[in-house]
Design goal:
The protein is mostly helical and about 280 residues long. About 75% of the residues lie in helices and about 0% in strands. The protein contains 14 helices and no strands. The longest helix is centred in the first third of the chain and has 27 residues.
């Protein structure tokens, strides 16, 4: 797989994640939020299980260990986002959750002891400005929701970095599969502790859970693990920063929600930042 092909797969994942908010909203009307996160991951694992049964026979303790780490991070992201959005303004939450695009190059630079290239640094600044404008952030109050959303972004950044490192050591497909099982397991444990989870019973509930499981989870997170083997963590983070743009486009064309001029400017800056970050810099 080439880096361009990997980037296109990551782009498809970002598109599906962005277009999944309608399904999450549909399920959250009657189901408990963390239980939705748990079920979407476990159902995704069960859906993929028969497709890759022969490949799964190559599972070993090392694969399970790395998958448990990324699965824990994914569950943490889901839980942080769910409770963070409840505790702060929508614009602040949207921006904070997207700050993983800023954290990834910084954390990667710290870990590698090498400052990001000029295109990556410039792209980070442009995307950050775009996210601020896109989400309409005017002021931010440090409250419980602020901390949870920022924590979710940090865990997401770690997931991108760890996935990039782990796919160099183990089978990326098996990592993508088993991390779904562990994410569902960890989220399920939290759901049993904090909520009164129930199984889907209505058509809307099943459409929500299975839609999330098949498209944004089974495809999205498995593709992320496989594609990150062939690209950089910074590149993956920049592509994932397009998720809120896809969400807004989906809401505009499918849910008849309006996308203002300011949001269009923010979206344009995000796209420009992603393009700038991808420029090949020659010393």
């Amino acid at each position: 797989m080439t880096q361009k092909q990997a980037d296109l797969l990551l782009l498809s994942a970002a598109f599906l994640w962005g277009s999944s908010y309608g399904l999450m909203k549909l399920g959250a009307e009657t189901l408990t939020p963390v239980s939705i996160a748990s079920m979407r991951c476990l159902f995704a694992f069960l859906i993929l299980l028969p497709c890759f049964l022969k490949r799964l026979r190559n599972t070993n303790p090392e694969i399970l260990k790395y998958s448990a780490i990324t699965g824990f991070l994914i569950a943490g992201v889901f839980i942080g986002v769910i409770y963070g959005v409840i505790g702060t303004s929508a614009s602040t939450a949207g921006f904070l959750i997207s700050t993983s695009v800023i954290m990834v190059p910084v954390l990667h630079a710290i870990g590698s002891r090498k400052w990001p290239s000029l295109p990556v640094s410039a792209g980070t600044l442009i995307v950050t400005a775009g996210l601020l404008i896109f989400n309409g952030v005017k002021s931010m109050e440090i409250d419980k929701g602020f901390v949870l959303c920022l924590g979710a972004a940090f865990l997401y950044a770690l997931d991108i970095l760890f996935t990039n490192a782990f796919t160099r050591r183990i089978d990326s497909l098996l990592l993508g599969l088993w991390q779904l099982f562990f994410a569902g397991l960890f989220a399920g444990m939290v759901s049993l502790s904090l909520e009164n989870p129930v199984c889907p019973s209505t058509i809307n509930e099943w459409v929500s859970v299975l839609g999330l499981a098949i498209f944004s989870t089974a495809w999205g997170f498995t593709v992320q693990a496989m594609a990150q083997e062939y690209t950089t963590p910074e590149r993956a983070a920049f592509i994932f920063s397009l998720e809120p743009v896809f969400a807004a486009i989906f809401a505009c064309f499918v849910l008849d929600e309006e996308m203002g001029f300011t949001a269009l400017i923010g979206a344009a800056l995000i796209l420009i930042g992603v393009w700038v970050a991808g420029i090949k810099w020659k010393n």
